[in-house]
Structures are given as C-alpha cells and as structure tokens.
Amino acid sequence: MKTDISRRSFLKGTAAAAAGAALASTPVMADELLIAPAPEAAEAKHPWEIPPEPVAEADIKGTIETEVLIIGGGYSGCAAAASSAERGVQVILVEQNDALTGHGVGGTGSVGSKIIDELGGNEAMGLDKPYSVVQWLRACANRARESLVAKFFNESHRAMDWLIDLALADGGNVYLSACNSRSRHYPEQPAYHMVTGLQSSADLGWAAMSVGVPILLKKDAEEHGAQFDFKTKALYLEKDGDRVVGAICEKEDGYYRYKASLGVVLATGDISGDDEMTEYFAPIANKVYSKLYTPVGSNTGSGHKMGLWAGGSFQDGPWPCMLHPQACAGFHGPFLFVSPEGKRFMDEATWVQGKCLGVMLQAKAKYAWSIFDGHWKEDLLDSLPHGGGMFWDNFRMWGTSEQDAVDAFARQVEGAGNGTGTDGRNYFQADTLEELAKLIEVPEEEFLASVARYNEMCEAGEDVDFYKEPTFLYPIKEPPYHAAKVGPALLVIVGGLNISDNFEVLTPEDKPIPGLYATGNCSGNLYASDYPINIPGNSHGRCLTWGFLLGEQFEAMKKA
Ligand SMILES: Cc1cc2nc3c(=O)[nH]c(=O)nc-3n(C[C@H](O)[C@H](O)[C@H](O)COP(=O)(O)OP(=O)(O)OC[C@H]3O[C@@H](n4cnc5c(N)ncnc54)[C@H](O)[C@@H]3O)c2cc1C
Predict the structure, then answer these.
(1) Is the terminal CB of the chain with fewer CB neighbours within 10 Å at N or C?
(2) Smallest Cα–Cα separation from 17: which of 30, 36, 44?
(3) pLDDT at residue 34 greater than cutoff 50
(4) Which of 304, 539, 545 maximizes ligand 1 atoms within 8 Å of its Cβ, making it the mutation to test the pocket?
(5) Quick one: which of 249, 288, 113 has its CA closest to 189?
(6) Please, which pLDDT band fits residue 364 given cuts at 50, 70 and 90?
(7) 72 domain-assigned
(8) pLDDT digits 0-9 by tens, 540-557
(9) Which pLDDT score is estimated for 206?
C-alpha cells in the first residue's frame, strides 16, 4: 500500500469505502473495529483530506495492545510518554524513523521554575503575568484560545521543575538564559531554560543540545516500563463507533494493529514538510530563505491528517509560523538593514519574527544585509540593556555580562566569515563603504545614499523614515565596515488540530473525539496568526507542559 495519497488512490479508496459500507450492513461483533469514515468524494477538496485505502485484514500481521499509544518521537511525544509511564500508565510510543527528533539548542520556555524561584521569583525577575498574557494574545491577534494560554502560564512551572529534576538526576545542568529582550516595545521574559551535560546523550557531542531532552525523557519513560517502537509509521487511526481505539502502523516487515484502551496521542509534529498544506495554511512560510526542520520530510502533518480523517477539525488559518533570522548570519543586532537593492526598508530594532517578516515582505528578495561599522562592539554593548533577544543577544547564562555576548559575536563577525548559517559566507568586512557594496553586490549609489540618510537621522536623533527608537540609532562612520547577511528561516508551523483544554481532538462541532488527543505542533489553539516569543522557548515549553499534563490525565482516567 502506498502512503502517498494521490487522486488515483483516492478513487480506489472510495471504492474500498463503498465495499466497507456494504460490509457494515451485515452484523458486526461488538469488538470489531471500523476504520475512520472517509469524506464523501464530493466533499474532499484537498489531498490531505483524503484517507488512504485501508490495509486488508489479511495483511495485518499482529495486534499490539497498550493503554496509551503515542504517535511521534519528538519532544512532545517523549514528554507525554515519560509523564504517563511515571504514573503507572502502560505506554507504547511509535516513531517512523530510527531515532528521536529534536531541534536547535533545545531551550525550553516556562513561566517560572525552581531556578527562577531561586533568583527571587517571577515578580522579582520582572514577569508581570497579566501584561505577558496580553502580549501573547496580541501577537496571536487575539485568536489564540485564552484558556489554553492561561493553562500554559499556570502549569509550565510544574512541568519545568519536573524536567529540571530529571536533568539533574542524569548528571546534567539546567541554566536560565539571559537572551530575552529588554525592549520596552518587545519585552521578553526570562523563561528560556537550557539543559546541558546530560549523561544519557553524552556520546552525541553537540547534537545533544537538540535531541538531549527527548533522549532524557525516553530514558525516564523506559525506566518506568514504556516501550518505544522505532521504524514504525502510523498510517491511520481506527475507531469503534465514535471512539478512537488505535492505529494501523507500518513496520519494515509489514502492518500491525495497535490498540489503546485509554487513548491515542498524536505527537507527529508540524506540516511544513507538506508543500500543499503549507501553501494553504501558512503561505508566508514559503517566502523564507530556508527551512531548517530536520530530519527533512518527517513533518508532513501526518497526525493532522489522521486526526482529520477520524473526524477532527483544524484551527482557522492562516497558521502561525515560527520564524527566526538564523538562515544566514547568526548575529545582526539592531543595526541598519538594507535590501539587495541597497535600500533601507524597516525599523531594525525589533523581535525575531518582526525582523524575518520585514525582510520577507520586501518585494522579491529573501534576505537583507545588516550594516555596521568599526564601533559596533561598543554600540552593541550600549544597546543590550534596552533591547536584545535572539541573534541580537546570545544564549549566555543568566547573570553573565553583556560583554560575553559581544565577545561571542566578535568571534563570528571577525572570525572565519561564517555564522550559524547554512549558506557559505555570511559576514563581510571592508575598509570603505564602496568596497563593501561591491563585496555584497548591492548597487553602490543606492547603498551610499541609504547609509548617508541613516547617518543624518542618527545625528538628528530621530528616525522619521521608520521610527526606530532613538537609542538604537548608531551611525556608520568608522572603518572597518561590516555586513552580515540576514536570512529568515522557518523553524516550524505551529497550527494544528482543534483541541479542548484537556488536549482532546475536537470535531467541527467542538465535540471531543473520545480516545483521541493531540500535543506539540500537531495540536492547535495555543497560537494563532503569529508565534509569540515574549516567553522565549515556549514551543518546547508547550511540548513539555502538554506532555506532563497528559500523563496526569491518563493516570486519573486509569484510576477512575
Ligand atoms: C532548527 C530549529 C530550532 C528550534 N529551536 C527551538 C528552541 O530553541 N526552542 C523552542 O521552543 N522551539 C524550538 N524549535 C521548535 C521546536 O523544536 C518544535 O516546535 C518542537 O520540537 C516540536 O516538537 P513535536 O514533538 O511537536 O514535533 P517533532 O519534533 O517534529 O516530532 C514529531 C515526530 O513524529 C514523528 N512522526 C511523524 N509522523 C509520524 C507517523 N505517522 N508515525 C510515526 N511517527 C511519526 C516524526 O518522525 C518526529 O520524530 C526549533 C525548531 C527548529 C526546526
């Protein structure tokens, strides 16, 4: 059976569904399983709406039973597995690849933690919860579900404390990063917790930063009896009446029926590996310089689709994208940006999403240049108390000095000419502006005029072109002159299945589908329109918190 769904297989699928309908008119045993109903041919408009053909009963090699089946071995699935297993719930996690998935530097956001408590608590650290919730909702154009946002604000502290205990028990360290912006326009809270030095992933070296927490959670889950089945891809869910009771999965040696008595959790990640879904739900995502999700092709929204075929519904579009200006240079500060045409086009002293979108909304180009002069280190140091955020400040530990960030960036800017980017040279340096224009291939006349105009406004102390805060108006006058390439990157698309406040997948009528849950990027409603970063690292924070709470829910269900 093909798992890629084409129009042709859809036609075959409807024939199979018709055969299924005929069978259903004959008496069925109470425990007989029925495949999730396929939408009628006339209703199916998009490829993702079309379920695959059911696997023939004769081709199913065996049945594997558990209480909770988790589909997807990323951060969210592993958190749900560990929390459930710790509470005595029987868990099987199926992962299509031969390894777990994890990303970036792995920083996890929470609203409070025992580390923050030791530093004096949220209030002492400047976290004003009502204000921060409003910031979040504004970034989401007030279309996020407020009760879910409040749930994250109320519960992420407990989930983070759990992670901290697990990390310390594994010989690791957890530190709070000082990378949050101090801007009065784009304030970010101290929330980004970084886990380092874990023994369970020590053999991975640097890669441990990204996948270390999922590995830690897997270790904890397995110590409490959970089973992880790799190279096992869930194809579709099975229902008994309204209730989701399991999934058909494909392994190397054939098809298996997984049955779950308490629930199935969709933890399959985002949709950005499916071009058609991305174009439909998040078209802006296709304007980025590059997409950074790995393993490439693992995030095709398969859980979104399985949930939909089982009667679930999607949150309204357009879906928010997590955008960071890290596709090219890893540093650009608050300095002048020019387009490849040599023109200034935005207020550069903004947050990561704002920087990306500003660059992406230029006419054609997918990148820009950040231009700064030989005084940049002093200017950066001067800017950090009033600004910052990722790629303006770095992931340094809370309590370290701003000079540490300057020194770290100096190694990039003045070093080998490469940042964290994926695209060759990202930093250039020249003794004259004319020479710099040649190096970065922008029209010299336009570029010199843009710098002259910018310098005039720096001198006047007012940016009447884009109204950047005067404190960030640093002139470009002293050689050597620098250019850093600013490339917007798509990390993930954070829209998904409509869920209840207890993570149950909802029908279009807002009714929970019994036995079906979604978490991580497969789940919706915590974000809308844009990805808020005023609690930095909240995407991993959601994976951790929703997983932690799902474990508590399954424990309560088991005891009921
Ligand atoms: C480069 C990069 C850096 C990032 N940095 C940060 C950061 O610092 N802080 C932060 O908060 N967020 C960060 N993010 C975002 C964050 O990593 C993700 O949002 C989060 O990891 C999503 O976790 P998930 O469990 O929902 O999905 P994923 O991590 O995508 O995991 C889904 C898993 O499900 C598996 N799967 C899919 N379909 C099936 C199927 N049918 N059957 C079986 N298995 C299946 C996949 O193979 C995968 O292993 C970053 C993202 C990227 C790309």
Answers:
(1) C
(2) 36
(3) no
(4) 539
(5) 113
(6) confident
(7) yes
(8) 999 999 999 999 999 999
(9) 87
3-state secondary structure 369-431: EEEECCCHHHHHHHHHHHCCCECCECCCECCCCHHHHHHHHHHHHCCCCCCCCCCCCCEEEEC
Which residue has the CA at smallest separation from atom 17 of ligand 1? 103
Amino acid, res. 17: A
Q: Is 234 a pocket residue for ligand 1 (Cβ < 6 Å)?
A: yes
Residue 205's contacts (CB-CB under 8 Å, 6 or more residues apart) are: none
Q: CA-CA distances (angstroms) from residue 100 to 191, 216, 230, 268, 292?
A: 25, 11, 9, 12, 17
Instruction: Kindly report the CATH number assigned to the domain that includes residue 347.
Output: 3.90.700.10
Are both 304 and 335 inside the same structural domain?
no
At residue 172 the predicted structure's pLDDT band, cuts being 50, 70 and 90, is: very high
- At 340 the three-state DSSP class reads coil
Residue-level pLDDT at 19 = 33
Mean pLDDT across 396-418: 86
Does residue 544's CB lie within 6 angstroms of at least one atom of ligand 1?
A: no
The three-class DSSP label of residue 476 is coil
Measured CA to CA, the distance from residue 328 to residue 346 in angstroms comes to: 19
* Statement to judge: residues 206 and 118 lie in one domain: yes
**3-state SS of the chain: helix, strand, coil percent to 5?**
40, 20, 45
**Interval between CA 300 and ligand 1 midpoint (Å):** 11
pLDDT tens per residue across span 287-336? 999 999 999 999 999 999 999 999 999 999 999 999 999 999 999 999 99
Q: List the domain range (segments joined by +) for residue 453.
A: 326-487
Ligand 1 near 228 CB (within 6 A): no
Nearest atom (ligand 1) to Cα of 489: 1
Integer Cα distance of 368 and 345 in angstroms: 10
